[in-house]
Amino acid sequence: MAIIETQELTYTYSQGSPFEKTAVDHVNLKIDEGIIVGVMGHTGSGKSTLIQHFNGLLQPTSGKVLIDGVDIWADKSKIRDVRFQVGLVFQYPEYQIFEETVYKDIAYGPRNMGLDEAEIKRRVMETAADLGLKEELLERSPFELSGGQKRRVAIAGVMAMEPKVLILDEPTAGLDPAGRDKIISHIKQYHQRTKNTILIVSHSMEDIAGFADKILVMNKAKLFCYDDTEKVFARAQEIAQIGLDVPQVTKVFMELKDKGLDFGKEVYTVGYARDLLLRKLAEKGGAADC
Amino acid sequence: MLKDITIGQFFPGDSLVHRLDPRFKIVITIIFIMMLFTGSNVICLIVGGVYTLLAITLSGVPFKMYWKSVKPLLPFLLITAVLNLFLVDSGDTLLKWKFIKITEGGIDISVFMMIRIVLLIMGSSVLTYTTSPITLTDAVERLLSPLKKLKFPVHELAMMMSIALRFIPTLIEETDKIMSAQKARGAEIDTGSFMTRARNMAAIMIPLFVSAFRRADELATAMECRCYNGGEGRTRLRQLRSSGMDYIALGVTIVFYIAAIVVAKITV
Amino acid sequence: MDNIIEINDLHFSYRDENGNPGAEVLKGVSLTVRRGEFLAVLGHNGSGKSTLAKHLNAILTPTSGKVIVDGIDTSDESKLFDLRQRAGMVFQNPDNQIVSSIVEEDVAFALENLGVPYEEMRRRVDESLKAVNMYDYRLHSPSQLSGGQKQRIAIAGIIAMQPDCIILDEPTAMLDPQGRREVMATIHRMNREKGITIVLITHYMDEAAQCDRVVVMDKGSVVLDDTPAKVFSQVEKVKAIGLDVPQAAELAWELRKAGYDMPEDILTEQECAQAIMKLFA
């Protein structure tokens, strides 16, 4: 069964005013449990508005959002519980840190859930480990940490709520390549342990190409496509046209296709490209001897 | 919710009021405030109300925006008005029932005061809506410049004020973001008991302050890199020039003020 | 030979509250930048690249060694404003460097500080706004603009000082791809059309790949200093530092490693596709 489902989901900002703008337009979507989804779209495409519906921070103007088969707005008084089922990590989440110690900050969400102290402790320790935060860090003030560490503390704060769905809005924004790779590997580690559904918003296809099972693309408030990563990359040309960055290695293969060299495969990582080319070169018989 | 606060905002435009010399606009606003407090009778308030409407119309900023400036304060104003109505005991008694007593003075203070404050906010909004914050501080700085001789830090205060105004929208947006982020962590801000809400305010205020300090630090460096060195020898892009229209506007305001004084005297 | 920036054996460490120096952030950096050059300083967080940038504008001054910018020793406090006029600085966070609530007044801020007369100020502000394609927004409030637009306003505010050199400290780190493209295009135009020397601090390899020359920093020292093609052909070395190389360069390197004949200076997808075509020819 789909963990997230939307039915004709529509959201209009400032309805009835001259600034009226439809940010999400009749989106129908079914996301299966346990997978990693890459969410793409440029600024203003509606992707941020869409994800804020999944945990009830925004209420649809029309249409429905179902989590685990339940319409989340059927009973408004339970909307806070939805936020525990669907965790949302905003952009630059380090700006939400406020507690005196790392431990307390990670524990803030679980504590709001009304869990007992032992359970809170278990969760804090497990997520801190997932994110590579050493135990001696937990009693330090989060404000003394490096930028990358702060980011990981903030992400841990949402993960510790153990939501069925974890949504991260550009978790690697502003980080250098090493910081980015670190965050991504920690998110993967969390996914392996919990098998929970993860949605990652990113501008860069290159960043999510390597590990997303499916990719969702928003364009001009509409769902442009939602499909397996490989199938989405088959439409690289269209995706480039709507202003999104396509991995350079995919562009190399688009170029080759234009020149008449078509391998009939969608290529989006360097490793895959290397293996494919080496195999084809070997088949061609040109020995690798120089 | 926070985005609805419009006090201190500026709406660029090219209306008659926009084009007035801000120094005149400040003086005019002061006369306007004196006008509102000349007398407490209906005609006096009508004079003030007509003047406010005139200014709003000429400002070219939609009336809705002025309403927005008052709206957030309305509950507070209403409570004060109701309290005044029942608690002030002066003048003829109009109604008496058990311990409730409504007097003429009570009505004066509650109803008139409320209308006055509404007019006051709307009228001063004409000034802030039509004058860019930097121009406004420029004007304040120039009006107060004689005080520099007394070693009063006129330029420094003006600069602080303009920076504060510049960062209001930025900090409001930031507050919205932090609130959403904490709500996503289960913070009860709109709902929950007063105590939980108060406790959760820390989750919003602390990140907000941390960020404001960081911004202040970075801004100071950026200003120094652009050769900021206090008020000494600065020139201005915004030139303040007074024209005939400024004197006309001032004249009209004074006429209204005199009218209010006359009306107040006659009815007394 | 005309060098606009000369850095000689620059050492720097931050001091703690008691004035004792901490660990060295810059460990003997020597570097020259030619007038009109477009230089990228590439490095990960903590490599010292931002600390280096702050020396070019005398936000920081050397613990030992010398930094000369346009003939001015940055340690000479009497020439501070002269220096900052000639070498302007653009920072990472677009919001935290905009002083005024009106675009054109912000662009004028430095000129106001320098006491430039009104007529000339007006002309220079308008010219700068046109140069970054933001003239139509001159009366807007910065809060209505996108990140890329704000960054262009910040650049206009520097251009208005008519500097010889602009130092940009990760100007695109907080922007979306659209904003990054806008800002990069603007910087390139300033370099090409106005001949302004550019020092771009970044951790994005694709931005570095578009420059004349790339300096790679690691642990407070310069470890590579060459053309982008030469720098990115050293895939292993660049990756070991914790930086990316363009995928085209990486793929070429992988094929080269497997024994195929791929040129060493591949940066773009076109160059890479061309070389692969040759292999299959």
CATH class of the largest domain in chain A: Alpha Beta
SSE pattern of chain A, N- to C-terminal: EEEHEEHEHHHEHEHEEHHHH
How do the SSEs of chain B run, as a string of H and E?
HHHHHEEHHHHH
Oligomer: heterotrimer
C-alpha Rg of chain A (nearest Å)? 21 Å
Number of helices of chain B: 10
Total helical elements of chain A:
11
Can you walk me through this structure?
The complex is a heterotrimer of chains A (290), B (268) and C (281). Chain A is an alpha/beta fold and 290 residues long. Chain A is 39% helix and 22% strand. Chain A is built from eleven helices and ten strands. In chain A, strands 6-7-8-3-9-10 form a six-stranded mixed sheet, sandwiched between helices. Chain A has a four-stranded antiparallel sheet with strand order 2-1-4-5, covered by helices on one side. In chain A, 48% of the residues are buried. Chain B is mainly alpha-helical. A two-stranded antiparallel ribbon of chain B has the order 1-2. In chain B, strand 1 (93-97) and strand 2 (100-103) form a beta hairpin. Chain B is flat and about 65 Å long. In chain C, strands 6-7-8-3-9-10 form a six-stranded mixed sheet, with helices on both faces. With 281 residues, chain C is an alpha/beta fold. Chain C has a single domain (3-245), classed as P-loop containing nucleotide triphosphate hydrolases (Rossmann fold), CATH 3.40.50. Classes of the chains: A alpha/beta (290), B mainly alpha (268), C alpha/beta (281). The A-C interface holds A 42-43, 146-148, 173-179, 203-204, 206, 243-245, 247-249, 251-252, 254-256, 259, 261, 270, 273-274, 277-278, 280-281, 284, 286, 288-290 and C 44-46, 146, 173-174, 176-179, 203, 205-206, 242-244, 246-248, 250-251, 254-255, 258-261, 269-270, 272-273, 276-277, 279-280.
Summarize the structure.
The complex is a heterotrimer of chains A (about 290), B (about 270) and C (about 280). Chain A is of the alpha/beta class. Chain A has eleven helices and ten strands.
Task: Map the helices and strands.
The complex is a heterotrimer of chains A (290), B (268) and C (281).
Chain A: E1 2-13, E2 21-32, E3 36-40, H1 47-54, E4 62-67, E5 70-71, H2 79-85, E6 86-89, H3 102-112, H4 117-130, H5 147-159, E7 165-169, H6 177-194, E8 197-201, H7 205-209, E9 214-219, E10 222-228, H8 229-233, H9 236-241, H10 248-258, H11 270-284
Parallel strand pairs in A: 3-8, 3-9, 6-7, 7-8
Antiparallel strand pairs in A: 1-2, 1-4, 4-5, 9-10
Chain B: H1 16-19, H2 22-36, H3 42-59, H4 63-70, H5 74-87, E1 93-97, E2 100-103, H6 104-130, H7 133-144, H8 154-184, H9 194-225, H10 244-267
Antiparallel strand pairs in B: 1-2
Chain C: E1 3-15, E2 21-34, E3 38-42, H1 49-55, E4 64-69, E5 72-73, H2 80-86, E6 87-90, H3 103-113, H4 118-131, H5 147-159, E7 165-169, H6 177-194, E8 197-202, H7 205-209, E9 213-218, E10 221-226, H8 228-232, H9 235-240, H10 247-257, H11 269-280
Parallel strand pairs in C: 3-8, 3-9, 6-7, 7-8
Antiparallel strand pairs in C: 1-2, 1-4, 4-5, 9-10
